[in-house]
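Retry 2 of 3 after timeout on previous attempt. Resubmitting structure tokens to design endpoint.
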């Protein structure tokens, strides 16, 4: 009888302890549910500030990356246009349906730094003369605030970037470039003479001040640097 009473006492004690624990947890949950909820004003301001900083960084990085891509695209577009002039110059392409002996070239001018010309050297002087020599789709237009920054040419190993105009002519049967860079006026490049420049460089610039160069070698090589 004593043993049964002890077991009953133990069971009652355990049951009471469980009830007490359950009641305590229930009371605690009720207190938590009835407590303050949501963000404080300071927490809200901190979160908004963090989101603003992250968004600003992303937008600035995206604009910088996008500008670099557009500048690179422009440089390669100009390089491909020069290559097109080279192809026209060394192939049998007529000008005005009857002239098959002309050379073709590209003309750049600092004074008109948002355009460049693909032209036929109809008068065989190695220079762009007027709009009547334009070849479709010339003139090419540079938009979105991008421009030709400077025109450079190398002579006897020395480079100068102070030229006003740059004319690059290709004439068959050689793919070589005949490069004439001038300030207002000056001698025109005639093949195998000292007036011909060894290398030319067209520097293009983005609105952010970044720049790239299209390099044309006298051997006919064209690259973007």
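Retry 2 succeeded. Sequence:
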């Amino acid at each position: 009888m004593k043993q049964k009473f002890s077991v009953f006492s133990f069971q009652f004690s355990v049951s009471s302890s469980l009830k007490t624990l359950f009641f305590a947890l229930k009371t605690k949950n009720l207190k938590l549910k009835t407590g303050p909820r949501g963000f404080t004003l300071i927490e809200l301001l901190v979160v908004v500030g963090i989101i603003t900083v992250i968004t600003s960084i992303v937008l600035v990085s995206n604009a910088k990356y996008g500008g670099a891509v557009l500048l690179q695209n422009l440089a390669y577009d100009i390089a491909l246009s020069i290559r097109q002039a080279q192809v026209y110059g060394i192939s049998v392409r007529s000008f005005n349906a009857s002239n098959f002996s002309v050379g073709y070239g590209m003309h750049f001018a600092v004074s008109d730094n948002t355009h460049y010309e693909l032209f036929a050297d109809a008068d065989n002087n190695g220079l762009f003369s007027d709009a009547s020599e334009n070849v479709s789709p010339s003139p090419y237009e540079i938009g979105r605030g991008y421009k030709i920054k400077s025109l450079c040419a190398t002579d006897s190993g020395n480079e100068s970037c102070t030229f006003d105009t740059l004319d690059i002519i290709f004439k068959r049967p050689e793919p070589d470039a005949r490069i004439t860079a001038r300030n207002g006026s000056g001698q025109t490049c005639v093949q195998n003479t000292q007036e011909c420049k060894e290398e030319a460089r067209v520097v293009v610039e983005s609105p952010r001040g970044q720049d790239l160069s299209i390099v044309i070698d006298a051997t006919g090589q064209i690259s973007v640097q």
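Attempt log closed. The chain has two helices and ten strands.
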